[in-house]
Amino acid sequence: MKTLVNKKKFGDLFLSEKEHIENIKKKRPELFKLIENPTPKARLATNIYILRTSKKITQKDIADKAHIGLKTFQRIETAQPDSNPTQDVIEGLAKALKVDIQELYKHVEI
């Protein structure tokens, strides 16, 4: 007797940017509010979150690769008022995420 296996297409394994925004709206409402009228800090936080979750990388892994503490990374990713990353930290985050720095500040459509 054959059993049916629910196979996903390769394209179904990745979320679109719109789906990531919906996830942010549900899981991180405070960050979603910042996206509506984004400051550079909010754009940085949103793009880091989208890139990190799309690559299925943990916060700790990114923090380690960027040579920063986990709490520091969490403050940056949530756009906390006390998060003021230096250029070196931003470069480290871009390198850890394997993107150009400009990608961390791109405009996010909602």
Give structural notes.
This protein is mainly α and 110 residues long. It has one domain (16-104): lambda repressor-like DNA-binding domains (434 Repressor (Amino-terminal Domain), Orthogonal Bundle), CATH 1.10.260. Helix content is 59%, strand content 0%. It contains seven helices and no strands. It has helices spanning 17-27, 29-36, 40-54, 59-66, 70-77, 87-97, 101-104. Helix 1 crosses helix 2 (29-36), helix 2 packs across helix 3 and helix 4 packs across helix 5 (70-77). The radius of gyration is 16 Å and the shape is globular. Residues 1-12 have low confidence and may be disordered.
Sum this structure up briefly.
The protein is an all-alpha fold and 110 residues long.
Write the layout of secondary structure elements.
Elements: H1 17-27, H2 29-36, H3 40-54, H4 59-66, H5 70-77, H6 87-97, H7 101-104
Helix pairs in contact: 1-2, 1-3, 2-3, 4-5, 4-6
